[in-house]
Amino acid sequence: MLFDLRPKDNKANLFDREAELSKVINYVGKLNIPITIVLGLRRVGKSSLILVAIKELNMPTIYIDLRKFEERQYLSYRDFILELQHNINELTRRFPKLVDFLKGISGVSISGFRVSFSWKSNNRVSFAQLLDALNDWASDGVIVVLDEAQELIKARGFNILPTLAYAYDNLRRIRFIVSGSEMGLLYRFLRIKDPESPLFGRAMDTIELTPFTRGQAIEFLRRGFEELNIEFKDYDEVYGKLGGVPGWLTYLGLKYYEYRDLSRAIDETIDYATALIRREFGNFLIDKQSAKDRYLAIMRMVANGCVGWSEVKRGLEALTGIEVSDSRISEYLRQLLDSSWVIKVNDKYCPAEPLISAAFKA
Ligand code: ADP
Ligand code: MG
């Protein structure tokens, strides 16, 4: 069903995205590209695209979902290793032979087909050695997905960049798919252009998912309602109020199916979306508490229409009643851009999507 709130995991339920899907399949499958990046706003369909591609590729996969650490201030090696352990146990259940390849690694204990990893500093299992083992085991390749990888910027006491670089250079059979909703942050984490970074100069192919266009949004809704045998014609109203982010359109479709009342379905979608957006903005502010009111003030200005740099400065100074330095203003805006709360259009700062604007208006 198209109006299912979970990420789609098979091609029949993925609307459009054909070009993007064949790119992922081609990069990861045929071209053997070591790291493929999938970028796009939250709820634009990154996880869906990746899951469908994996199914089409039919290769063993480790899927590390970092979104669950979104509300955390930091991420420990224990968190990361337990995620990995869970994933690798799913593989050993399907492919018992893999256990033989994991046996000799320090920090790995085995009982039957179950593996446990230690994160204790004197005996911590190394991510690089695990990848080595996967590389030796998988004759046709293994996919390692780091979904919402910008969360790894919060890692404390470990750094996976050197391991990514090692795998990039040496492990032919390991292919990474790295996704991120907070685009600037993801690039800041990967530091591909920083000569000091382990990943410096490594080429990576990027696939960017954008919200549906008006035409795609209408066709998506039309197909979804058709599946449910529902007559519907107010497409323009929906697109006008919600924009083209697939996640919101999916929610609207489901609510309309439930109530058969468009204004109620739209209102509930807006309530749901704005509540989520505000909570996610709260996560963004976790490590910015001292400037919390300033970030909120900027979002309120942006919500009412695009604003220029000097307007932001004037607005913030009016709010605080003191001078706010130029570098501070630029830093606030950079953080908002990096985390995809705002986008820059012709030198103005605008909400990244209509519902972000709705979330900060009232
Ligand atoms: P992201 O990982 O970018 O946050 P998801 O893949 O979780 O996005 O998608 C968000 C929601 O939108 C889910 O309910 C998903 O089913 C739906 N969705 C996104 N893209 C599509 C698509 N191309 N076809 C059908 N449903 C989609
Ligand atoms: Mg996702």
Question: What is the topology?
Answer:
Layout: H1 18-30, E1 35-39, H2 46-57, E2 61-65, H3 77-94, H4 98-102, E3 108-111, E4 114-117, H5 127-137, E5 142-147, H6 161-170, E6 174-180, H7 183-190, E7 205-208, H8 214-227, H9 235-242, H10 246-259, H11 262-285, H12 292-303, H13 309-320, H14 326-338, E8 342-345, E9 348-351, H15 354-361
Helix pairs in contact: 1-2, 5-6, 8-10, 10-11, 11-15, 12-13, 12-15
The site of adenosine-5'-diphosphate has 22 residues, from α2 and α10.
Describe this structure in words.
By secondary structure, this protein is of the alpha/beta class. Helix content is 50%, strand content 12%. The chain contains 15 helices and nine strands. The strands form three sheets. A five-stranded parallel sheet has the order 2-5-6-1-7, sandwiched between helices. It has a two-stranded antiparallel ribbon with strand order 3-4. A two-stranded antiparallel sheet has the order 8-9. Helix 6 links the parallel strand 5 and strand 6 (174-180). It starts with 17 loop residues before the first helix and ends with a helix. Bound molecules: adenosine-5'-diphosphate and magnesium ion. Magnesium ion binds at residues 46-47, 147. Adenosine-5'-diphosphate binds at residues 2, 4-8, 13-17, 40, 42-48, 246-247, 250.
> How many E-type strands?
9
Run of helices and strands: HEHEHHEEHEHEHEHHHHHHHEEH
Strand order of the largest sheet: 2-5-6-1-7
Instruction: Write down the overall mean pLDDT.
Output: 96
Label the overall shape: globular
